[in-house]
Amino acid sequence: MDKDLSPLVCALALNTLFGNEPKFSHHLIDTLGSAEAVFALSAQERLELFGPYNPRAAQIGPAILEDAQAEFERLSGRGIQFLSIFDKGYPEALRECPDAPLLLYVRSTTPAAEIFDGRPAVAIVGTRDQSLYGRECCQRIVRALGEAPARPLIVSGLALGVDITAQAAALDCGLPTVGVSPVGVEDVYPRRHTAFVERMAATPGCALVTDYPPGTAPVAYTFLRRNRIIAGLAGATVLVESRIKGGGMITARMAADYGRDVFAVPGRIDDVRSQGCNQLLKEQVAAPVATPEALPVALGLGRRRLTRQAGLADAVRVRFSPALPPEDVETLVGIASLIRERRGICFDELCRETRLDYARTARAAGLLEEEGFIHIDLLQRCSINVKNC
């Protein structure tokens, strides 16, 4: 084995063996002085250390180390990077956690050691069953963070709903983002986000990160282990929407246990998707996100830079005036303004409010969606894309 790779390969092997019990790996290393020392034990020394009936003793040996070396070489050849807890580039916030993973697999065009180098990190998490309110709040929060003097790294879990909304908004705002995966580094979960992961991994400063060996399937415990990495990477966690029970709530409570700042977006008392946020606020585990624009100051990122932006109506006129008659442009302006005022308004309501027929309303809404001004869901409910309003 290459002497320079020995600590990394040993960490890879220990992570494969005891990834679900990182505290045990830490105890072994603290006891013996290094990861290499664990694999230098003789059979008798392993017996004395573990006792005669401990199955862990038999797992430690040259075979697992050879497998780790082969995996390192194969994945390195495919552009996968590694960060062991012994490396200087390993994220300091995560290193502070008592159950920090020994090893991270990283997919990125940026050197792994530079991804977490001194940049503040904010985790944004929440329910998969995201409401239009939650989607808009999430986008506004990310945009506000993007306007802060100290622009943070956005961390989330690539899940449907709040997670992917936050990470897509980060890329749109020019913020780096790290997606923490619940499966092996060669896979994507959910698969529908494969194209997004490829875009993210190819964007400088962004990365896909996991501590799972290749071939790990998504089962319940892999999400729990993933959530503790999200909480550990970030100095603060923002819960946008969550039911009383859910992955976002677990991540937020883990962050609080690590002594990190936790924020929650208040919601309606009769909305199940806000019950988790409201519960954390009630327990004073989390501080409220009163306005997205105030969050950067609360996080110590500085007061947002105020930039003059064109209003929604002006932006619609600039985009469509060269191609459409003035009366059609004003129709688009009116519909866009109505959607901004009435989040979640559907086509039938738009028809009643504008007194246009259904075909003309649908065509106008379709044009606005094509140009990124609005979002239309499967129930034909419309909402404004925050970055364009």
The value of Rg in angstroms is 24 Å
How many H/I helices?
19
Give the domain tally.
3
Give the % helix: 40-55%
- Structural shape: elongated
Proper CATH architecture of the largest domain = 3-Layer(aba) Sandwich
CATH topology of the largest domain: Rossmann fold
Distance between the termini: 57 Å
The largest pleated sheet is described as: 9 strands, mixed
The mean pLDDT is 91
The top-level CATH class of the largest domain is Alpha Beta
Give me the secondary-structure category.
alpha/beta
Q: What strand line-up does the widest sheet have?
A: 1-2-6-5-4-3-7-8-9
Strand content: 5-15%
Instruction: Give the number of DSSP strands.
Output: 12
- pLDDT < 50 stretches: none
State the main characteristics.
12 strands, elongated, nine-stranded mixed beta sheet, Arc Repressor Mutant, subunit A, three-stranded antiparallel beta sheet, about 400 residues, Rossmann fold, 19 helices, single chain, alpha/beta, about 45% helix
